Amino acid sequence: MAGSTMPSSGSSRPPRGRSRTKFLLFSTAVLLGLGFVGGVYATKVAMKSPVWVQHVFGFEMPPVVQAPPSSPLPPAAPVASVPPSAPTPPAAPNPPTADNHTAGANPAHGVVSRTAPPSPADEQGFLGHWEITDEVKGGDGAPTQVQSVYIFNADGTGEFDTNGKKMYGLRWVLSGDFLTLTYDNEESPQGDDGAIRMRWSVSPDKTLLTLVPENGKDARATLYSVGAGVYHRK
After folding, report:
1. Cα gap 35→6, rounded to integer Å
2. If residue 103 lies in a helix (H) or strand (E), which one and from where to where?
3. CA gap 129, 152 in Å, rounded
4. Whether this model's pTM surpasses 0.70
5. Which residues of 98-120 are buried (b: 16+ CB within 10 A; e: fewer)?
6. Which positions ≥6 away from 97 have C-beta within 8 Å?
7. Going by DSSP bridges, is the β-strand pair 196-202/178-183 parallel, antiparallel, or unpaired?
8. Which residues contact 163 (CB under 8 A, 6 or more apart)?
9. Span 120-233: which CATH code?
10. Separation between Cα atoms, residue 101 and residue 39, nearest integer Å
11. What Rg do the C-alpha atoms of the chain give, in angstroms?
């Protein structure tokens, strides 16, 4: 019929087969998600459950290894007290070093000579140079000054000088208040026994020496005809 219409073959309704496939895929995804969540939850429960429950679900947890108890530390040894040390005795002082070496000592060769202790004559101030000035009358009557010097050495020797010139050598000996002089040549003055004995004394300040001949005249008295002399330390 001219007025009748035929259904078009190009309908827009989707086929049923494709819709069913999508539904199956969605359902499978939901089931997989629920299964995964349920499995995780069941695993947690099984881990906290007794051993027989774990065997039912097929879980085998490794045995818990307990650490062995640590042995107690031995007690510390008591600290021994150190007895106080005895005080160190003070070192002995060094003996004083004698400062009486002679000028000719040579320490490099290990030779150190020492002078003898001072003699009584040295302690009394007898040793040394003694001088006196006399006025001697000349041939024309005018006085002339003459200087006389006695030298007494520590070894018992000495000399007599006039105006700086040696007149006699001598040896001397002290005995108490007396001095014995022995001159070294035949022309020198001599006493009764070949020697001149004089009384001697030194002033307290050891600056003056008094000589008084007893058994004759000494060199000064013989040469200038003068008496006892008071000598000054030179």
Report:
1. 52
2. none
3. 7
4. no
5. eeeeeeeeeeeeeeeeeeeeeee
6. none
7. antiparallel
8. 146, 147
9. 2.40.128.280
10. 117
11. 70
Q: How far apart are CA 153 and CA 126, in angstroms?
A: 9
> C-alpha distances in angstroms, 109 versus 43, 101, 116, 157, 222?
107, 14, 21, 31, 51
Return left, alpha or beta for 103; rule: phi > 0 is left, psi -120 to 50 is alpha, else beta.
alpha
Q: How far apart are CA 156 and CA 181, in angstroms?
A: 10
Residues 198-232 as b or e (16 or more Cβ within 10 Å = b) = bebebeeeeeebebebeebbbbbbebbebeebebe
pLDDT tens, N- to C-terminus, the chain (234 residues)? 444 445 444 455 556 667 778 888 888 888 887 777 777 776 676 666 666 666 666 666 666 556 666 666 666 666 656 556 666 666 666 655 555 444 444 544 444 445 556 777 787 889 999 999 988 877 777 788 899 999 999 999 999 999 999 998 999 999 999 999 999 877 777 776 778 899 999 999 999 999 998 888 888 888 877 878 899 998
Answer for the pair 189, 217: CB distance below 8 angstroms, yes or no: yes
Farthest CA pair distance, the chain: 217
Residue 178 bridge partners (DSSP): 175, 199
Q: For the chain, what are the domain ranges?
A: 18-57, 120-233
**Chain position carrying tokens 């510390």:** 76
